[in-house]
Design a protein that fits this description.
There is one protein chain. With about 140 residues, the chain is of the alpha/beta class. The protein is about 40% helix and about 20% strand. Helix 2 packs parallel to helix 3. It is globular, with a radius of gyration of 14 Å.
Length: about 140
């Protein structure tokens, strides 16, 4: 499995973030994991990295429902931020809700992962990424 340099997780649930961090560390698949608690903070984090010309996350795990700016609002702002499409992270939605309820708002290629995240779900995501199956490079 290809080693990931860094992952951004945007989720307002500290317990889920802890579980996710443990699973990523257990797999030893990523150098750095950064967390933000809502979509607006995620956008600001990316803007800050861009301004400082620092490496951007290769993967963004994005909660669907959050206060301040939810996952769908993040995608809208991300698309404006990334208008030139030079930055193409893999973005996967994560949610405790059932996919059947939310899937109508997702692009067919969008990866959806149900909470809680565990090593099996992460392995599946990384396999999709390495084989370039069903996971978009950015969103449009």
């Amino acid at each position: 499995m290809k080693r990931i340099e860094n992952i951004l997780i945007i989720d307002d649930d500290p317990i889920h973030n802890y579980i996710c961090k443990k699973a990523i560390h257990k797999m030893d698949c990523c150098k750095a994991v950064h967390f933000e608690s809502n979509g607006l903070l995620g956008i600001n984090y990316l803007k800050n990295l861009i301004e400082k010309e620092k490496p951007l996350p290769e993967i963004i795990l994005l909660d669907v429902y959050m206060p301040v700016l939810d996952g769908f609002g993040f995608i809208e702002r991300f698309n404006k931020l990334n208008a030139n499409k030079e930055y193409s992270p893999y973005i996967a939605f994560i949610s405790a809700s059932e996919k059947s309820k939310e899937h109508k708002r997702f692009d067919q290629k969008t990866k959806f992962i149900s909470k809680p995240i565990d090593t099996l779900k992460l392995e599946d995501l990384f396999l999709c990424i390495s084989s370039d199956q069903s996971v978009p490079h950015g969103m449009s």
